[in-house]
Amino acid sequence: DVQVRQEEIKEELTKADLDRRVDIYLTETETIWILVLPAVVMSTESEDAERVLYRNKVYTDMCKSKADDDRFVEKTVQTINGATKNKEVQCDRIIMEDKGKMVTSCGFYDTFNASEIEPMFKTEGSTDNKTEKATETSSKPHTTKKQDQTTPVSSNKGSTTSVTLESAAVAKNQEEEECQSEALPIPENLQEGLFFMERILMENIFQPKLAAYRQFPILIDPDVTSDRSGTEGDKKEAKQENVDRQKDEQEEAFTDPSILSALKETTPIPTLEWLWSYACGLTNGHSISSMAWSKVNPDLLAVGYGAFDFKGQKKGLACCWSLKNPMWPERIFQCEYGVTALDFSMASPNLLAVGMYNGSVTIYDVQSCNDTVLLDSSESPNKHTGPVWQLRWVEQDRGEAGGGKRERLFCISADGRITEWYIQKRLDCTDLMKIKRKESEKKRLPGKKERKSEALISRQAAGMCFDFHPKDTNFYLAGTEEGCIYQCSCSRNGQILKTYRGHKGPVYKVTWNPLSTDMFLSCSADWSIILWHRDSQTPVLTFSSASAFVHDIMWSSKSAFMFAAVNESRVEIWDLRVSILEPVLSRFASPTVKFTSVLFAKNTDCLLVGDSQGEVGVFLLQNLAALNSSKV
Q1: CA-to-CA distance for 276 and 261, rounded, in angstroms?
Q2: Mean of the per-residue pLDDT values for the chain?
Q3: Among the entry's GO cellular component annotations, what is one (predicted)?
Q4: pLDDT tens digit string along 17-63?
Q5: Separation of alpha carbons 176 and 114, rounded Å
Q6: Are 428 and 380 in contact (CB under 8 A)?
Q7: How far apart are CA 23 and CA 8, in angstroms?
Q8: Could you tell me which residues are beta bridge partners of residue 487?
Q9: Dihedral, 116, 117, 123, 124 alpha carbons, nearest 10
């Protein structure tokens, strides 16, 4: 009975399973190719079939020969990787330029309606040409307006031409311009008229700035309408904000609380107000190396553009800027090498001497409109072999026949020579001084043997700067790359009268005091400015306000205690009557700009500062006289 019952239970379970049966159908999905390596198959009838069969046979024979070799190991892949190589990529330097153009509403209107404006002046020749064109178009097969807009038009010969409304409008404008140019005669004095018009516009635009430069009262137009009063008020507010900002910067520059409190109580704070900059698109990116005023025209400024380092050398410029047009130079002289020094002549004010980085000296005539070289030292056998760092026209009286003073041109170069140039049929020179390299003076300790002096690579020291005495031009100072300053005489060639040691780097500038002629200043790459006395070989005072190279210094012609200095980060005004520890006035440069040169303006309280981007900033010195009077 038990077995029968078990069989019945199995049958019931089997029936229940059949009732719950699930049918599963398996189908093949679409094939997805992850990696496809196409085989190269070539027909036996192709041109390269024999070459491919030959290479396949060579490969099969090579595999068979490797199978009998004991060193042969069969692997899935035997690919030999080539040696890695470095590929250098070079490209020209990308130069960015900012350009702008003044656009008026009239210009917008004329440009927008150029295609609809009819020519105002028509000549007989132009009308005849138009009639001929009209007859030619009438002889062609007639086309509808729709065909003109869709542009394909077929001729009898089957050739197709593309004619659009835009090209027709451009051709029409060109015809109108040609007709107007033929109809309007060009007067002979047009260029002269445009020149005077440019002068008038510059005077109107820069009138407030020029008045401040010449210390004249600023004129205000009484006919200014009320609707423009808001604009004028905005300008005045912006100007006042600029002045306040400058005052705040100057307050931060003073660290002595006693000086600051005295200034606040008694006198206004001195400031440097920016007026304008001598710059144009041609000078952008050129570092300013030197500046010089004309000896007879105080409004004419010569600026030299050239790099000081060897890696950044490019073609140089020598530009003559006038106060009557600060936006474009009056004369432009293109130079093959960077300009490092320049100076105007006193006897012949139209002559401009230019020294270059390759050691050549050229003379230009600024009266001529051409930029051709008047004289050049390229054919001189005694020309310099290093950069000409400074040159000067100097009037000297050496007791020659005929009496009177004679102007001479002197240069100092990195080849260690100070030369005197003379003009005959060509430009040639003679050596006035060869600066010899001095051995370092080291004290020998007792009990130690004296070491042998090291051999010098060059017997001559590189000259960096020089300056002639303002009263007796037979004496001059010469600064060298070693940091020494030598006092020499033109009557004693090759002899050094005195040696001034105080700098630990190259001397970039040395200058006599024009009012106190026994004192002179020097600046160097060791971040310092040193005040010297002619009769003392030890420094009188040493000034150092920033950790940067001091590129240029200049005495003021109005005060024997005031001088200006520029380093890479800022321009400084020092007044020794006020402080010998810090400058009384300073202005910082932009983060991407470095100051390179400085120059006081003639007959006015202004300062010119050149930078590494080709701009000469003109700054107005304010409230310095009141500061000096309060300290006397």
Answers
A1: 32
A2: 77
A3: dynein axonemal particle
A4: 666 666 677 777 787 777 766 666 777 777 778 888 888 888 888 87
A5: 10
A6: yes
A7: 26
A8: 477, 498
A9: 30
Q: Encoding tokens for residue 217?
A: 């009262």
Helices and strands counted in the chain (H then E) = 11, 30
**Rounded to whole angstroms, how far apart are CA atoms 530 and 549?**
13
Q: What is residue 376's three-state secondary structure?
A: strand
**C-beta of residue 623 within 8 angstroms of C-beta of residue 273:** no
Distance separating alpha carbons of residues 339 and 330, to the nearest angstrom: 18
Q: What is the DSSP letter of 144?
A: -
Chain center to CA of 53: 66
**Quick check: 316 and 335 in contact, CB under 8 A?**
yes
Using alpha carbons only, what angle is made at residue 173 by residues 172 and 178, rounded to the nearest 5 degrees?
A: 100
Tens digit of pLDDT for each residue in 77-105? Answer: 556 665 565 555 556 667 888 888 788 88
Domain coordinates in residue numbering, the chain: 287-398+405-438+458-597
CA geometry: angle at 391 spanning 389 and 392, to 5°? 155
User: What is the pairing mode between strands 331-335 and 616-622?
Assistant: unpaired
**CB of 468 closer than 8 Å to CB of 392:** yes
In whole angstroms, give the CA distance from residue 260 to residue 575.
Answer: 15
Residue type for position 27 = T
| Alpha-carbon span 97 to 285, nearest angstrom | 9
The model scores a pTM over 0.85: no
- CA 8 vs CA 14, 17, 126, 304, 398: distances in Å: 10, 14, 121, 120, 148
The distance from CA 171 to its chain's CA centroid, rounded to whole angstroms, is: 41
Q: Which residues contact 610 (CB under 8 A, 6 or more apart)?
A: 288, 291, 303, 595, 596, 597, 598, 599, 616, 617
- Is 457 exposed, middle or buried (CB count within 10 Å of its CB: 0-12, 13-18, 19+)? exposed
pLDDT of residue 160: 38
Give the C-alpha separation, 500 to 149, whole Å.
86
A 10 A CB-CB count for 537 gives 14
Report the alpha-carbon distance of residue 425 to residue 213 in Å, rounded.
Answer: 43
Q: Contact at 8 Å (CB) between 286 and 316?
A: yes
> DSSP code of 228?
G
For strands 550-555 and 562-567, give the pairing. Answer: antiparallel
Lowest mean pLDDT among 177-181, 197-201, 571-575, 594-598: 177-181
Radius of gyration of the chain (CA): 41
Residue 153's identity, in one-letter code, is: V
Residues whose CB falls within 8 Å of the CB of residue 490, separated by 6 or more in sequence, listed in order? 396, 398, 432, 473, 474, 475, 476
CA distance 524 to 506: 6
- Residue 324, token pair as written in the block: 């009557």
Using the CB atoms, write b or e for 516-533: b if 16+ within 10 Å: eeebbbbbbbbbbbbbbe
Cβ atoms of 294 and 316 within 8 Å: the answer is: no
Alpha helices in 116-228 (DSSP H): 124-139, 145-150, 165-183, 190-205, 207-213
* Cβ-contact 585, 579 below 8 angstroms: no
Cα 182 from Cα 254, distance rounded (Å): 67
Query: Residue 125 is inside which H or E element, if any?
Result: helix 124-139
Q: How far is CA 189 from the centre of its chain?
A: 36
Query: Can you read off the two tokens belonging to residue 65?
Result: 């020969």
CATH architecture of the domain covering 287-398+405-438+458-597 = 7 Propeller (2.130)
Backbone φ, ψ for residue 288 (5° rounding): -85, 125
